[in-house]
Amino acid sequence: MVDMIDRLEPQSITMVQSLPEWESILGEIEMAEFFGLNLTATGPDPLCHEIQRISLALPNAPSSSTVYTVDIADRPELKESIIGDLAGLLENGRIKKTLHDSKFVLSFIRARAGRKLNFCSIFDVMLASQICWSGYYYLTPSGNPKNPWTKRLVDHSLASLAERHLGIILDEEGCPAQGAAALLPLHDILADLLAKNDLQRVADLEFRAAIALVEMEISGIGLDSSGARDLIDQEEDEIIDQIWRMQDEAERKGFVTVSFDGKRLCCYLNPDRQEDVMAFLAKRGYRPANTKAEVLKSLAAAGCSFAEALMRYRHLSYNLLFLNKWLEKVHPLDGRVHPQYFQIPSSTGRISSRHPNAQQIPRRGDDAPAIRRLFRPAAGKRYVKADLSNIELRIMARISGDEAMQEAFIKGIDLHRLTASRISGTPFEEVTDSQRQAAKAMNFLLIYGGSAKSLQWRILSDYGEFICLDETEERLERFFCSYPGVREWQKMQLSQMSYTMQHHFHNCVRGFFSLPLTATRTILGRRRIWPRFGAGITASKFQMYNTPCQGTGADLIKLVMAEVYEKLSDEEARIIGSIHDEIILEVPEDRAEEYAARLKEIMERIGSEMLYPVPVKAEAKVMRNLAE
DNA sequence: AACAATGGCGCG
DNA sequence: ACCGCGCCATTGTT
Predict the structure, then answer these.
(1) Which domains does chain A show, CATH number per domain?
(2) pLDDT at position A403, please?
(3) For labelling, which of A281, A289, A325, A426 has a CA lying 20 to 30 Å from the CA of A105?
(4) Å from A546 (CA) to C3 (C1')?
């Protein structure tokens, strides 16, 4: 520990003032072959904000560091050459770099460099920390008697890491030099932690994939703004219509709300207020448990026109919020929308997206195409969209080792049809479309650990068909008899739930230590852990079934993204989206078919390697907009 | 006034 | 008693 503390206190912080000075530091870095990089900017947006200050930390034998700081804001004449040199260092595979939140740092350098950069040999302490603590949380008292404990996820900011592992409090904001100095010992600790938990392959993957996320954020997505505004106008007209219908009905039935705060569109009934909705439905003689779409649907079927109007209202209101959110985010510099991506916020390893969320562009529903049509590539470009087909089922076949399922995929047999045939006893060729559809629902249900009860519910809500519990139990039984490997695997996962394994942690007080807890792993080795509070098990069986599938899917798509960035993308052909099992590129129209074929090849090759012996199939197509 | 929890719904 | 996420409006709490 003493060593580390020494290394934290940089022997010297040198402010770099001139180009010759900078060049001699470059020479030093080349010799050291390892450095920490930290920077601050005038804001979060690489397209319009500027890099302010760059700090480089060099290990200084044996256990201390030297930090150099360049204040670019003060010395604009140095800016161009320094950023160029930094890009060179980041692309130099011989020199190892340690960063915190590499997406932030790299996106600024990428945006300033104005060319595709082949970053390599990067270690991101934030990603490393997220990988090591994936899914972990603490319970803190909430004061709410109904729910006295609230979950608090582990914080992975640089300040938290420095405090947790090194026991130092970084200054508020300000001084990136201190942060840069902390990066070197943090690297050593987290690299050890990754090794102890056998998470190095996952970490290497995440470090490679980061640059693909940078690329997606900088590329952004083209949106037809005027088309969006037209659609908003249309839907606003209709939503007013629907509100009027509901109000009219409320008025006719003599329904008056108790309170009116002046903000509401009408004084009779606020459709956004479930209290009002429930009260009104109660007055009409309905007693729904809640006001979900499913319930409203059945009320509408029973002749309640209010329920129908409310559903339409909610749908339109969602669309309007969606469209307005996207319009609000159109960037003034390039007219495109730049959603942010987060690499490992989720405990399974999936990527998430925010501001706006690019992973929830409408797809289902009659008016989804009208919205998707608004997403368009630049002039002379086309979209290439490719998705991994039935990926979660293929993953299930691989991790469960179920022979029937694996054989079906190897022979290219339609698994939904096969399931339908096994369940109903009808010969494979004679399975009807509706039988196949029902079996499809069942296949997906199984991934989540669905029960006879939930199967019954699903069939009722999807097909309006009531099946008694005995029958769904029978179907479930036949399902598992067809795929005995899956049943065995689920049993094993269930036993893992209460099985205690040691996971390694580190903090500045205890150094390295391990705790007994519940964990799952993906094929690549990504681990999700659940804390144990006393003897309590916090994982659910559903999570034990689902996490390895979802997590392996995340591993796979990230591997594809890294490969696509490195081997396929360039200034003209860019990756612009990644939606769990789908990749979207924007490419020159005259080469679109070629890119589609290459993307498909990458996805199938990498997928089939990862899931061997289960083959992976991908479907790629060229599109003029997201609807086609 | 600012923050947290909740219900409801979009995507996979 | 179905997994993971983000977003919004409402409502309750500090």
Answers:
(1) 2-196 (3.30.420.10), 225-328 (no CATH), 403-482 (1.10.340)
(2) 95
(3) A325
(4) 6
